[in-house]
Design a protein that fits this description.
This protein is mainly α. The chain is built from seven helices and three strands. Among the domains are: 70 residues, no CATH class; 44 residues. Strand 1 and strand 2 form a beta hairpin. Helix 1 packs antiparallel against helix 2, helix 4 crosses helix 6 and helix 5 packs across helix 6.
């Protein structure tokens, strides 16, 4: 970078002797690369260059090491935060589902207590999430819609009436057994 080529982080413009190139504020990769170019090629004070781009001197050297090891793609921002489910592991999910299928009426609190007794650190809310994710919620009774008046006036056989006699207990003739049956 020659002294006439300059990046202004406030206006996000890379300006040279014949024009300027806008760099989007959301393009973190370009900002990191421009910082390294300015710090390595212009022989300026590294701390001042890092501060200009809102980085520390230590972070500047971390990014420089990443660039030297992996090139421009290594400067791409990585996803932060946990990389895996460390509380709701596959084994914990299996145990939650196992307890739920063994007793569908058991509450999330009871499942949490059983899992804590077997040395699984899990919260009640995490158990509720697993149950919701797998769709093994308790079934709730819903009110049945009322039947129309015309259907209620029709005579129906009640389940409480005496059952019809089975064929074995019917008096009278017996069926003759045919060969092959």
């Amino acid at each position: 970078m020659n002294p006439t080529l300059q990046f202004d982080p406030t206006s996000h413009q890379l300006t040279g002797p014949t024009g300027s190139l806008p760099i989007p504020a959301s393009d973190e990769l370009a900002r990191r690369f421009l910082m390294l170019v300015e710090g390595q090629c212009m022989q300026d004070h590294i701390a001042a260059v890092a501060q200009k781009y809102d980085y520390s001197r230590q972070r500047y050297y971390q990014l420089l090491d990443l660039f030297n090891q992996g090139g421009l793609s290594a400067l791409e921002p990585k996803k932060t935060g946990p990389k895996s489910n460390y509380r709701r592991t596959d084994e914990v999910v299996r145990q939650i589902l196992r307890h739920r299928f063994l007793d569908p009426d058991v509450s999330a609190e009871v499942i949490a207590q059983k899992l804590r007794q077997t040395d699984f650190a899990i919260s009640v809310r995490s158990i509720e999430r697993v149950i919701a994710d797998f769709g093994v919620q308790k079934k709730t009774l819903q009110a049945q819609p009322q039947k129309p008046a015309s259907a209620a006036s029709r005579p129906t056989r009640s389940k409480t009436s005496a059952p019809a006699k089975s064929r074995r207990h019917q008096s009278g003739t017996r069926r003759s057994s045919k060969p092959g049956r």
